[in-house]
């Protein structure tokens, strides 16, 4: 067994407080949030049941962790109501509307600029 594998293998949760498994070695019955979402489920308020861990050179801690939830305790995803769809549509409209010139574009305004391209660089648009 490699050193990285043994560091990530703690099925009783003595070292990390929750059962820990190496990446891709989690037992059946556990799933991450995205895996639950793909099945049409959500954690539903349950606590973290386990975690998977792997080495990651780009992180300061040196490891990457994904939390696992029990599939049998997961609940179905709540359906979107008409009010939620309306709120989402208004939020997307606000992201596409320039606050300076009030023009609505077919793309989202870059958050780095805060305004549309024409308002951010007016001199370049005049010379072109």
Q: Could you characterize the architecture of this molecule?
A:
This protein has a four-stranded mixed sheet. Strands 3-6 form a two-stranded antiparallel ribbon. The chain is built from five helices and six strands, in the order αββαββββααα. The protein has helices at 3-8, 33-38, 82-96, 117-120, 122-127, and strands spanning 20-22, 30-31, 41-42, 50-55, 63-70, 75-76. With 128 residues, the chain is an alpha+beta fold.
Can I get a quick summary?
The chain has a four-stranded mixed β-sheet. A two-stranded antiparallel ribbon has the order 3-6.
Descriptors:
alpha+beta; two-stranded antiparallel sheet; 18% strand; 29% helix; elongated; four-stranded mixed beta sheet; 5 helices; 128 residues
Count of helix runs: 5
**Which percent band covers the strand fraction?**
15-25%
Task: Compute the CA-based radius of gyration.
Answer: 23 Å
Taking strands numbered 1, 2, ... along the chain, how are they ordered across the largest sheet? 1-4-5-2
Mean of all residue-level pLDDT scores: 89
Unreliable runs: none
What structural class results from the helix and strand content? alpha+beta
What string, H for helix and E for strand, traces the elements in order?
HEEHEEEEHHH
Indicate the percent of residues in helices: 25-40%
Approximate shape: elongated
User: Main sheet?
Assistant: 4 strands, mixed
Calculate the terminal CA-CA distance, rounded to whole Å: 64 Å
- Number of E-state strands: 6
